[in-house]
Amino acid sequence: MNELKEQENNRPRIVHLELSQETGFPLDFNTYYHTHLYCHQGGISFLFNNTQMKCKGGEFLFWFAESQLKDLEFSRAFKATILLVEKDFLNQNIPDQSWSIDAVLHSRQYPIKQLNDKSDRKRVLSNFKWLHDKFQDREHRFYDEVLNLQMRLFILDMWHTFANEYERRKRTLQSGSLYERFVHLVQEHCMAEREVQFYASLLSVTPKYLNFVCKQNSGVTASEWIQRYTKERIVLLLNNKNLNIAEIAEKMMFSSRSFFTRYVKKVLGITPTEYRNRLE
């Protein structure tokens, strides 16, 4: 246990690197770090949650730590700049804003971001450098405080850069297939609505048919999708220590804290209090 703790203490919180086909990613990067990547040229293809994807020149890529990644392949001309941020350090500094939940859930499903112009690309690379520079400035009298603030500014600036892409994809989903519209509605309403009937009514179909369509498109029923998104929101809110459990239950429109506790026990296997205790 002491050896493991020593390894964790020696692991840098911020890593800034230039990548090519020859260098590749650091060993075990996906285990410990959230990955921010700007692709300058060429491309990188990969399996993400069993879906084939490719990030090409001029695009931004974000992977959460412990993402389901497989079969990473680089083109010959591949060149990219990456910023790796230690997962606990980033999670502890996510600003307490409701938009953060939408941003996190959106990125879990759509890791590749389209950058609109050169100013956005410059902003991304500048933010990489600023955060890494603050991490290296260990002589600063208020090192930890400044680094934490820069991490929060980094996150807010990234959200600003990707807001247009996020809104564009939302509009696309709203005009898409029944399955796509269902997924969008779940993202929008699952803080308060966790029954298939609610979404089926909005889409003017029966719950049975909605479950069928979801199963056909994704291998997962509508009720399972609702539970997945609700579970992710619960985890995000429980990780926010500025909210107590009663406040989270209220935010998610549960009729009582005890009902919320039973639901969390069902989806996480432990109670909210037990989950919080594991964060200590």
TrEMBL record:
SUPFAM superfamilies: Homeodomain-like
Keywords of this entry: DNA-binding, Transcription, Transcription regulation
Domain of life the protein comes from: Bacteria
Domain HTH araC/xylS-type: 180-278
InterPro entries: Homeodomain-like_sf (IPR009057), HTH_AraC (IPR018060), Tscrpt_reg_AraC-type_HTH (IPR020449)
PANTHER family tied to this protein: ARAC-FAMILY TRANSCRIPTIONAL REGULATOR, TRANSCRIPTIONAL REGULATORY PROTEIN
Name of the molecule in the record: AraC family transcriptional regulator
Record organism: Maribacter cobaltidurans
